[in-house]
Amino acid sequence: xxxxxxxxxxxxxxxxxxxxxxxxxxxxxxxxxxxxxxxxxxxxxxxxxxxxxxxxxxxxxxxxxxxxxxxxxxxxxxxxxxxxxxxxxxxxxxxxxxxxxxxxxxxxxxxxxxxxxxxxxxxxxxxxxxxxxxxxxxxxxxxxxxxxxxxxxxxxxxxxxxxxxxxxxxxxxxxxxxxxxxxxxxxxxxxxxxxxxxxxxxxxxxxxxxxxxxxxxxxxxx
Length: 222
Ligand code: IYR
Description:
Shape: globular
Radius of gyration: 20 Å
Bound molecules: 3-iodo-tyrosine
Number of strands: 4
Structural class: alpha+beta
Number of helices: 8
Distance between the termini: 39 Å
Largest sheet: 4 strands, antiparallel
């Protein structure tokens, strides 16, 4: 018989309120989340950013490799460099790289190549996926598994943590994103995955009047 690896007791406590109440309250909270494009310049303490990234890093991952790196950018010079490079990509996108259907699908958002939120937000978190494990003491790197799924789940948890902290964000994916590894001088096994400005909304912030699909449209019970 193969020896069992060591296990520890599950540190889980049932919520005091019923699962029905807890699930419904969490839905109400998450349903109030909106992607925000106008940010206040009000600072956010580093401690908050550390907590939300720690939350994201609790995400499940293939073989528990945690194949992610969260680069929290606060340096105004770095944010300016990211903005300049991102806007150059977006000018190419809006100027011809995107096809007509894509641009029509975006029209109701009112977006364009200008990305002031990349400088206004006190923090820009750039999420990288790891294509190999970080090198060990001998410089050896191992395999990672289900990287997109793992990092995608961690980003979802990061977004929930940001919302829970009373802050706002936007999932921004300048395409191509190769410039982020360059600007942030990341090692070759890290690939940019998602960029999230984090902060408080601007006082005059508005969001598109969008409707979410009903549960019946997204769920099937068999
Ligand atoms: N990356 C561009 C365009 C864009 C694409 C999608 I798909 C969106 O949901 C929103 C925007 C931009 O950031 O403007």
